Amino acid sequence: MAMTPEERGRAAEDTVAALRAELARVGVTLPSLRVDPLTMAARAPYPLVELGRCNLDTAMRLVAVLREAGR
After folding, report:
1. Could you tell me the pTM of the whole model?
2. Which of 8, 23, 4, 13 minimizes the C-alpha distance to 50?
3. Distance between CA atoms of residues 27 and 36, nearest Å
4. pLDDT tens digit string along 8-53?
5. How many other CB atoms sit within 10 Å of the CB of residue 19?
6. Contacts from 20-26 at CB under 8 Å and sequence distance 24+?
7. pLDDT score at 42
8. 34 - beta bridge partners?
9. Residue span of the structural domain in which 56 resides
10. What is the C-alpha to C-alpha distance for residues 48 and 40, in angstroms, rounded to an integer?
11. Is 5:44 a contact under the CB 8 Å cutoff?
């Protein structure tokens, strides 16, 4: 069953919050993590999650966490 535009918006925000929480749990913060507002502005929104940019230390931490998770 397809989601309504409102449900898609809520799901996007909930997913960003969950992703932020899980990343924080493993010591990673993506400061620009958000729902892309332009993708929510359409009549039939198709939200994209913007991971944004991060500094080198954060990128290295993310690589380490992903490598560990892959073991």
Report:
1. 0.86
2. 13
3. 24
4. 999 999 999 999 999 999 999 999 999 999 999 888 889 999 999 9
5. 14
6. 23/62, 26/65
7. 83
8. 50
9. 5-69
10. 8
11. yes
Q: Which residue has the tokens 């992703």?
A: 19
Nearest to 49 by CA among 23, 70, 71: 23
Mean pLDDT for 45-71 is 93
Burial class (CB in 10 A: 0-12, 13-18, 19+), 61: middle
Mean pLDDT, rounded, for 46-71: 93
Number of other residues whose CB lies within 10 A of the CB of residue 30: 19
Give the per-residue pLDDT at 34.
97
- Give the list of residues 6+ apart from residue 26 with CB closer than 8 angstroms, or none: 65
CA nearest 49: which of 24, 32, 64? 32
Cβ atoms within 10 A of the Cβ of 62, count?
18
Question: What gap in Å lies between CA 69 and CA 48, rounded to an integer?
Answer: 25
